[in-house]
Specification:
Length: 106
C-alpha cells in the first residue's frame, strides 16, 4: 500500500468548495422563500372564481340571446325565440353557478 500523503487536501477542505457550498445553500434558501405560497394566493383564487362565475353568467345570457336572435331571423318568430333562448341561457347559467359554488375547495 502507498503510505505517501495525498498530493491535495480532501475536497471538503478547499476554501473555494466551501464558498461554493455556502452560495448554493443561500441560493436554495432564496428559492424556497420565493416559491413559498404567499398570503395573497387565496385572494387570487377567489378572484379567479369570481371571474369564472361572471363569465358563466354573461356567456349564458349572451349566448342564449344570440341563438334566440338567429332563430328569430330564420323562423320569423320575433321576439319569442329570443325570449325563450335567453331564459334557457339564464337557467343554464344559474345551474352552472350553483355547481361551481357547491364544489369543495381544492
Amino acid at each position: 500500500m502507498n503510505d505517501d500523503p495525498p498530493a491535495r487536501d480532501p475536497i471538503g477542505e478547499d476554501a473555494r468548495v466551501n464558498a461554493l457550498e455556502a452560495r448554493l445553500k443561500a441560493a436554495r434558501e432564496r428559492e424556497e422563500q420565493r416559491n413559498k405560497p404567499s398570503p395573497g394566493m387565496e385572494a387570487d383564487a377567489n378572484y379567479r372564481l369570481g371571474n369564472r362565475v361572471l363569465a358563466e353568467l354573461i356567456g349564458g345570457i349572451g349566448g342564449g340571446a344570440f341563438i334566440g336572435w338567429v332563430i328569430d331571423q330564420f323562423a320569423g318568430t320575433s321576439p319569442w325565440g329570443l325570449l325563450v333562448m335567453m331564459a334557457l341561457g339564464i337557467i343554464v347559467s344559474f345551474r352552472n353557478i350553483i355547481r361551481i359554488s357547491s364544489r369543495r375547495p381544492d
